[in-house]
Write a structure and sequence with these properties.
Mean pLDDT: 97
Distance between the termini: 39 Å
Bound molecules: alpha-D-glucopyranose, calcium ion
Strand content: 15-25%
Shape: globular
Strand order of the largest sheet: 11-10-9-5-2-1-13-12
């Protein structure tokens, strides 16, 4: 597909986690054939881009985020022909194909690494980050990896350690090596030529390791110690200019962006880096710190920081996070209302919404009975860490369950059939048993379902540029559960109100009684007044256009 500049601003992106989306051949693992079967469903949802988590050859230590060959498709997912069939089917329906680029690290089974570890003077010896041992043969420094334990691993053949910010099977690439960089650019060129329309770029804030003293050694995690160094920004600009900008390929980087200024650095058009950023927040942190007030504070700060020439990726969910209705909503009593409220929130903010598979039917977190049932490497390591720190097994399991990445990875629930219609075989990860109540087929039949609410939202967004492009202003007070804002574009003026809590709340807005309700989740029954009483998790989108 050909793309105009700024086309990414009018996308609605759907993220597929291929392993868990749809199994096309009955081996229990989702695959490209299954994805192609569901293209009409995606079209009917109203999305116009699909980001697929990695489908490249991989030993699956980190479910595909450990790539052993960037130019071939993981056998379990199918063949390059299957990928091309998906691409063609998507393009025929006006859906762009966004690939996941993992460029911070490869698998330790990648041929580059297998060569690199052999000696200090082979053609690939500088493709990874190698360092001499510290005093007494210890690690070169105390950096921890994201998945627990030291970020360094010793290799006797070289008498050196290599750096891995994630699992030890995911060695970090050395972007300072010109040859490595040229090979990485070739990988991108390969997918450009295959017809990718854009990229989600994985874990990209720490290409420059700052090991010469520029990293912040007070940080425990290597990823935090060298986050957002200028060398990383320089590398990103070089890559984008060469590989993505010429054809306006869409780019969204997964970054460390605790401060709004960091997001500006990554997404402002004037700097020539990414179109959008996905700030990474560890689930444990999110779980402990989120609140409606925090959300409002972030919203306002990020709007101010990016409104001139940046852009926002809007999401609550992805393959690394708990299910949004379980974390920010109420998965029991107000399941339906809160799932809809969260959706209305994400789709009425300035920016590009990202829907994570299953979110559109309100899928919830999983609770497995034993740690053995969890697949995610991060969950297993976290559990062991908790036990080592003195937690008893059931407490450790409870903590791990709340933040486990498997919450997002249980198979998609298509219908009330064995395994939720995900597979005819034995699923690689157990299906959430609530598939009998929560599934696509049931929600297709129900006019009032979460799924059909998403369709109304995507439909509204296509017809009303104010949703993506309008100016934004918070209307609600800083404290309290009500998040309300105004959007304006030309004569269009919308007021959008959400109650982020299970308690009733109220909201005052002059003129609201003259507005027209475009969408709501409780059925408004004529309750539109200047002083609104909001029910639990109520959401209302009101049009108040000027004459
Ligand atoms: C990103 C991915 C995550 C992966 C990690 C290492 O955070 O989203 O799933 O484990 O990078 O590639
Ligand atoms: Ca399969």
């Amino acid at each position: 597909m050909k793309h105009e500049k700024d086309w990414f601003k009018d996308l609605i992106v759907y993220q597929i986690y291929p392993r868990s989306f749809k199994d096309g051949n009955g081996d229990g693992i989702g695959d490209l054939k299954g994805m192609t079967q569901k293209l009409d469903y995606l079209k009917s949802l109203g999305v116009n881009a699909v980001w697929m988590s990695p489908v490249y050859a991989s030993p699956n230590v980190d479910n595909g985020y450990d790539i052993s060959d960037y130019r071939s498709i993981m056998e379990e997912f199918g063949t390059m022909e299957d990928w091309e069939a998906f691409r063609d089917g998507a393009h025929k329906r006006g859906i762009a194909v966004i690939m996941d680029l993992v460029l911070n690290h490869t698998s330790d089974q990648h041929p580059w690494f297998k060569e690199s570890k052999k000696s200090k003077d082979n053609a690939y010896s500088d493709y990874y980050v190698w360092r001499e041992p510290g005093p007494d043969g210890r690690e070169p420094n105390e950096w921890q990896s994201v998945f627990g334990g030291s970020a360094w691993e010793y290799v006797p053949e070289r008498g050196q350690y290599y750096l891995h910010f994630f699992a030890k099977e995911q060695p970090d690439l050395n972007w300072d090596s010109e040859r490595a960089r040229a090979d990485i650019m070739d990988v991108i060129r390969f997918w450009n030529e295959k017809g990718a329309d854009g990229y989600r770029i994985d874990a990209i804030s720490y290409l420059d390791k700052g090991l010469d003293g520029r990293a912040d050694m007070s940080q425990r995690f290597g990823t935090a110690a060298c986050a957002n160094l200028e060398g990383t920004h320089r590398q990103i600009r070089g890559m984008v200019k060469q590989m993505m900008e010429p054809d306006h390929l869409m780019t969204v980087g997964e970054v460390i962006g605790d401060r709004p200024e960091d997001l500006w650095d990554y997404t402002s058009a004037s700097r020539g880096e990414f179109n959008m950023a996905i700030p990474f927040v560890p689930p444990v942190v999110e779980l402990e710190t989120w609140s409606p007030s925090r959300i409002k504070e972030r919203l306002a700060a990020e709007y101010e920081a990016l409104k001139e020439d940046g852009w926002w990726a809007r999401f609550f969910s992805n393959h690394d996070k708990p299910r949004q209705v379980s974390l920010y909503g109420d998965e029991e009593k107000y399941w339906k209302q809160s799932a809809k409220m969260l959706a209305a929130f994400l789709h009425t903010l300035p920016g590009t919404p990202f829907i994570y598979q299953g979110e559109e039917i309100g899928m919830t977190n999983i609770r497995f009975a034993s740690i053995e049932d969890y697949d995610d490497i991060d969950t297993r390591n976290y559990y062991e860490e908790q036990v080592r720190a003195g937690a008893d097994c059931s407490e450790a399991l409870r903590r791990a369950a709340n933040v486990s990445r498997d919450n997002a990875r249980t198979p998609m629930q298509w219908e009330d059939k064995p395994n939720g219609g995900f597979t005819q075989g034995k699923p690689w990860l157990a299906v959430n048993q609530n598939f009998r109540e929560i599934n696509v087929a049931a929600q297709e039949r129900d006019k009032d379902s979460i799924l059909n609410f998403y369709r109304r939202l995507t439909g509204l967004r296509k017809e009303n540029p104010v949703m993506a492009h309008g100016e934004f202003k918070l209307l609600s007070p800083a404290e309290g559960p009500v998040v309300a804002y105004e959007r304006r574009l030309g004569k269009a003026r919308w007021v959008i109100v959400h109650n982020f809590s299970a308690q009733p709340a109220s909201f005052k807005c002059p003129g609201l009684d003259r507005g027209e309700v475009l969408l709501s989740n409780w059925g408004l029954e004529g309750r539109l007044s200047e002083e609104m009483d909001l029910r639990p998790y109520e959401t209302v989108i009101v049009r108040m256009d000027e004459e």
